[in-house]
Amino acid sequence: MSNTNQKKVLFSITKKNDQMHDSHEVENSLLVTKQGQLQNAFNRWADENRNPLSSCSMRIVTDSFDYLHDDQVLPIQPEQLFFMDYTSKEDLANANVLDIGLGSGALSIFCLLNGAASCIGLDINPRAKLFAGYNAMINNIDKDFLMIDGDPFDIFRSVANKKFEFICSNPPFEPTPPDVNYYINSAAGIYGLDFVDKILANVDRHLVDDGVLQMVTMAPGNATKPFKLYEIIENLNSG
């Protein structure tokens, strides 16, 4: 990660166990302005006689929020922690995983650390693949983890002939007017559902029998339900 002087953030994500279910939270975050700070952090953990992963589920490096270019790699957000809280280890056991919208690699790495056999991560942002590769290294990922170019117009083009036991995504979901230059990680059309629509329209072709799609997103709605998301699902079912 020494190819840029931009500030980064190192997140430590901890798993808490209670009687109901596991929950994940950001234990702490370290603003990194120099490459040496990351190494110093890992050395400090070693000096404290702790395995770097023993006190937390994972560590993830991202851009800081004041990186304002459209190729920003998004810092850890509540929806990623929500995904971790509600993903079943039974669904991940020995699964071949597809992660649509790789970003920092947080979801992919979580899956690989919790029983998945392999993972392919799709993203159109070259910087995302750099961050995800680095994050895989600092989390000691030793399973097959392939990061390849995505296609915003044909979501599954890069994996056209593949099927997966588990497909996950935290897709872009911010409502974005046409022709507005906005963050790659967020821009998702006028209702914020462009990527969700494209994923749902073709996901069945890429899931094995009894395969699982787990997606965490937001959608326009009211006090009762996210009605725009329901409209998409109902249209697809009727088709």
List the helices and strands and how they pair.
Blueprint: E1 8-16, E2 23-32, H1 35-47, E3 58-63, H2 78-85, H3 89-92, E4 96-100, H4 106-113, E5 118-123, H5 126-138, E6 144-149, E7 164-169, H6 194-202, E8 207-215, H7 227-238
Parallel strand pairs: 4-5, 4-7, 5-6, 7-8
Antiparallel strand pairs: 1-2, 1-3
List the main descriptive attributes of the protein structure presented here.
Rossmann fold, alpha/beta, five-stranded parallel sheet, 24% strand, 239 residues
CATH fold node name: Rossmann fold
Q: What is the spatial order of strands in the main beta sheet?
A: 6-5-4-7-8
- Full CATH superfamily name: Vaccinia Virus protein VP39
Question: What count of structural domains?
Answer: 1
Q: Name the quaternary structure.
A: single chain
The main sheet comes to: 5 strands, parallel
- Helix count from the secondary structure assignment: 7
Helix content: 25-40%
Series of H and E elements: EEHEHHEHEHEEHEH
Number of strands: 8
* Shape category: globular
Examine the secondary-structure arrangement and name the CATH architecture. 3-Layer(aba) Sandwich
Mean pLDDT: 86
* Rg calc: 18 Å
CATH class: Alpha Beta
